[in-house]
Specification:
Shape: elongated
Structural class: alpha+beta
Order of helices and strands: EEEHEEEEEHEEEEEHHEEH
CATH topology of the largest domain: Tetrahydropterin Synthase, Chain A
Distance between the termini: 41 Å
Largest sheet: 7 strands, mixed
Radius of gyration: 21 Å
Number of domains: 2
Number of strands: 15
CATH class of the largest domain: Alpha Beta
Helix content: 10-25%
Number of helices: 5
Length: 211
């Protein structure tokens, strides 16, 4: 199967993603026999570990805005899962599970028992006044004790963006001498059973430049 470009047929590869539809894309390799392409593809491999412990959780309040409307302020008992992919050490492992568990648990604690507010929301106005946080969104006004609020560097407190934020915080907390072996990190944030969002990034991508 291929995609036509001029008179040529470009090969198509299909990738299966966790929790998502298959994604097909075409690629161009000039002057390389098909057998060499297959050998090169098979030679590229790395390993993944998964940490999905029950204690990787946080209870937080938030509201999400969508198309000019706002959810009521409400809370979730969130759950977090982490996938790390990379190359093996000489001892045959990617990372010590305990390092990933420790980093993920510390990142979850940052959000626990707090009201989560998006710092970069285009319409949300947030001010600190005498130990209080005042929040205005269109005609709605909230006041919270400052100690109960966490401003996050996101545009909205969706599960997707919380997963991205946690991925950065987890990477920061991995031992520096070991994190260089990590090629990909994937983080799940589950709002309720069977209702979750995933964020996945390569660590030479934008996320790595932020941490």
């Amino acid at each position: 199967m291929g995609v036509s470009e001029g008179n040529a047929q470009l090969p198509v590869r299909t990738v299966k993603l966790r929790g998502a539809r298959d994604i097909s894309y075409y690629y161009v390799e000039v002057g390389v026999p098909e057998s060499s392409q297959a050998e090169e593809c098979m030679a590229t491999e790395h390993y993944r570990i998964v940490v999905d412990k029950q204690y990787l959780e946080f209870a937080s309040a938030h509201f999400v805005t969508m198309k000019g409307t706002r959810e009521p302020l409400h809370g979730h008992n969130y759950h977090c899962g982490v996938v790390v992919e990379g190359d093996l050490t000489d001892d045959g492992y990617v990372l010590d599970f305990s390092d990933v568990k420790r980093a993920a648990r510390a990142a979850c604690r940052l959000l626990d028992h707090l009201v989560l507010l998006p710092e970069h929301h285009p319409e949300l106005r947030v001010e600190r006044r005498e130990g209080q946080v005042w929040v205005d969104y269109r005609r709605d006004h909230f006041e919270f004790p400052a100690a109960d609020v966490l401003l996050l560097p996101v545009a909205n407190t969706t599960a997707e963006l919380l997963a991205q934020y946690l991925a950065g915080e987890i990477v920061k907390r991995l031992p520096a001498e070991k994190s260089g072996r990590v090629l990909i990190i994937e983080v799940m944030v589950e709002e309720a059973p069977s209702q979750a969002a995933w964020f996945r990034t390569e660590l030479n991508d934008a996320l790595a430049n932020q941490v």
